Amino acid sequence: QVQLVESGGGLVQPGGSLKLSCAASGTIFSRFAMGWYRDCPGKLRELVATIFSGGTTTYADSVKGRFTISRDKDTMYLQMNNLAPEDSAVYYCNTVPAATIVDWGQGTQVTVAS
């Protein structure tokens, strides 16, 4: 059973940066499309970035130009720049589509506030 562990969240001021990491207990990053999702208060879980097995990436309009998804053999990353309060959320990684291969992890909290 593959497990995903997100880390790297924290409190950051508006305009700041954070880099999230997603570690997997098994080798899935090169086999499946993977994504970063987030739960913003009062909103449905949103897919914000996808990286396909061939390396192509796509982004939600809300984060395009500010977030960058990447991966290596064992870890997937989300570099988040120019953060805004509306980016505050619990961030999760999973396959795209979600939860078809592996369960949700606990996520990592990102809070953007001055």
Tell me the quaternary state: single chain
Give the strand content. over 45%
Q: Give me the strand/helix succession.
A: EEEEEEEEEE
Mean pLDDT: 94
User: Could you give the distance between the termini?
Assistant: 40 Å
Low-pLDDT runs of 5+ residues are none
- What is the approximate shape? globular
Number of distinct beta strands: 10
Strand adjacency order, main sheet: 2-10-9-4-5-6
From the alpha-carbon coordinates, what is the Rg to the nearest angstrom?
13 Å
Percent of residues in helices:
under 10%
- The number of helical runs is 0
What is the SS-derived class? mainly beta
Main beta sheet, described?
6 strands, mixed
Could you walk me through the main structural features you see in this protein, from its secondary elements to its overall organization?
The protein has about 110 residues and is mainly beta. Helix content is about 0%, strand content about 45%. The protein contains no helices and ten strands. The chain has strands at about 5, 10, 20-25, 35-40, 45-50, 55-60, 65-70, 75-80, 90-95, 110. The strands form two sheets. A six-stranded mixed beta sheet has the order 2-10-9-4-5-6, with no helix packed on it. The termini are far apart.
